[in-house]
Write a structure and sequence with these properties.
Bound molecules: 2-acetamido-2-deoxy-beta-D-glucopyranose
Order of helices and strands: HEEEEEEEEEEEEEEEEHHHEHHHHHHHEH
CATH architecture of the largest domain: Sandwich
Largest sheet: 8 strands, antiparallel
Helix content: 25-40%
CATH class of the largest domain: Mainly Beta
Distance between the termini: 21 Å
Number of strands: 18
Radius of gyration: 29 Å
Shape: elongated
Number of helices: 12
CATH topology of the largest domain: Jelly Rolls
Strand content: 15-25%
Number of domains: 2
Length: 484
Amino acid sequence: MRFPLAATSVILAVLWALALVQSLDFQFPNFTESDRDQLILTPDISNIAHTAIQVTPDSNGFSMVNRAGRVLYRWPFRLWSNGGKNASFNTTFVLNIKRQTASSGEGLAFILTADRDVPDGSKGQWLGIVNSTLNGSKEARTVAVEFDTGQSFPDDLDDNHIGLDVNSVYSRTSVSLNDRGIYLSKGKDVTVDVRYDGKNLTVFVDKDMKNPVISEHLNLSDYLPENVYVGFSGSTSNNTQLNCVRSWEFIGSEIKDSKLRWVWILVAVGSVLILLISIGIALFLYRKRGCQVDRLEDAYPNIDEAILGSSTAPRKYKFKELSKATELAGTPGYMAPESILTGRATTETDVYAFGVLVLEVACGRKPGGQTKRDDYISNIVHGLWELYRRGTILEGADPRLDGIFKNEEMECVLILGLACCHPNPNDRPSMKTVLQVLTGEAPPPDVPAERPVFMWPPKPPSFKEWGNSIIGGELSPFSEISGR
Ligand SMILES: *[C@@H]1O[C@H](CO)[C@@H](O)[C@H](O)[C@H]1NC(C)=O
Ligand SMILES: *[C@@H]1O[C@H](CO)[C@@H](O)[C@H](O)[C@H]1NC(C)=O
Ligand SMILES: *[C@@H]1O[C@H](CO)[C@@H](O)[C@H](O)[C@H]1NC(C)=O
Ligand SMILES: *[C@@H]1O[C@H](CO)[C@@H](O)[C@H](O)[C@H]1NC(C)=O
Ligand SMILES: *[C@@H]1O[C@H](CO)[C@@H](O)[C@H](O)[C@H]1NC(C)=O
Ligand SMILES: *[C@@H]1O[C@H](CO)[C@@H](O)[C@H](O)[C@H]1NC(C)=O
Ligand SMILES: *[C@@H]1O[C@H](CO)[C@@H](O)[C@H](O)[C@H]1NC(C)=O
Ligand SMILES: *[C@@H]1O[C@H](CO)[C@@H](O)[C@H](O)[C@H]1NC(C)=O
């Protein structure tokens, strides 16, 4: 059971690392059911039908009146970074808006937003961009290029215009398409190009690249968080229309200064190595069963005594003793303290090895002591735990990263690493929790300020894992010791 678990986690780590490296580029020449898992669709409102995105319901059994929806690309786009860099992007999409009532209503928009969910009460004039609370507020964190087909309030230019909206439905610039002979709500395909070069946002319609409809200086980092979702919002009122997007292409530049990415790539590669090594060890043990254990016992004659004594009282081990033993076993640093006593690898020892690997990569140094004499402090886990106790864990980060990372992210990585290297196997997080932390779904586990001493047999867990289908969360039995 161990290997499938390890393999799953490695594959996830690799996929995750790869997802981070890619710049955000995608192409939907049309939309089919198979594209659903690449998109976030507002439930019961937005849909994929007739090879297009229906941002608000098409007539199929749903009321089309007074609806608001959003359809976003599932993975966020990194727009800017602490280092003062702006991303740039080019996107091209084909809209098809078809009026269903005497007057069309209300409109469709291309949006960059912090929020996946369409705001409550953003139907009608709000175009799914903001609602009356969010309108004009910094909390909206949404920039939109609107294709407005309803003149819904006095400020609105007409019922056929493009506008640039920043945290508001009030357009800082709006341009009617009437003069160009383009009518948005007549069920015709309208091709739109939006370009952002880090300074200016420019909108072209129907491939007229000489005469932009809008070209406006805009510092997106003033209004939007670092990571935004891109996609479309739309709404209807008592006046309805089909808000379709027929195709969509997006090319976003990569911001290269987050060196933390390399940490993840190395962790992923390292995980593969750990997997290979543990398979290797398993094969080796399989062939030479018994032999290995005998040799370990010869070299460390007290081991049986220790294990026997353990049934009455937990015993503390000095780090020196353990590190000696670790060297004997031949893989210093990556081996969890208990594996010296049990002589076997478990899910918990894998988590320990993973933790050491994470710390090794994030701190940019070897896991073991650099010198024999100073082994305790120069051991990566002990050294970092000491920094953590003093509240200066970030000092442990690889100096070669030049501090170019988000402090919270680095802190999260380092604390996760420590949690995996908890001396008590029962207190190490499961691989499932590790993945949740890595993907930002869960905060890093609680880690005691003082590194607990290693005891055997281990104490029961001091915290409970949530969720029931824990990958590797079930403690592996250590019964082999007594059964031998
Ligand atoms: C959608 O696009 C794909 C890829 O270009 C193409 O193979 C497929 O035939 C298209 N489907 C429809 C229904 O147009
Ligand atoms: C966007 O298009 C312009 C003009 O073709 C090009 O110069 C620029 O490099 C493109 N940007 C990206 C991110 O591809
Ligand atoms: C506006 O949207 C926010 C976020 O969805 C929500 O908390 C708020 O209640 C909404 N305001 C109105 C008037 O619906
Ligand atoms: C929305 O907010 C803008 C300020 O950003 C304001 O000028 C406009 O009147 C508001 N619109 C509505 C309909 O309240
Ligand atoms: C950006 O837009 C301004 C007008 O708002 C224009 O003067 C300037 O030339 C544009 N810069 C670029 C690089 O397109
Ligand atoms: C980022 O945007 C700001 C404001 O729009 C601009 O002054 C700055 O030069 C841009 N940075 C890069 C690297 O393009
Ligand atoms: C753009 O916004 C960022 C973040 O708010 C700011 O640091 C930078 O100075 C701005 N650039 C310009 C030219 O306004
Ligand atoms: C929408 O229609 C309903 C029912 O016909 C009516 O009560 C309501 O006033 C209309 N709303 C607007 C803004 O016209």
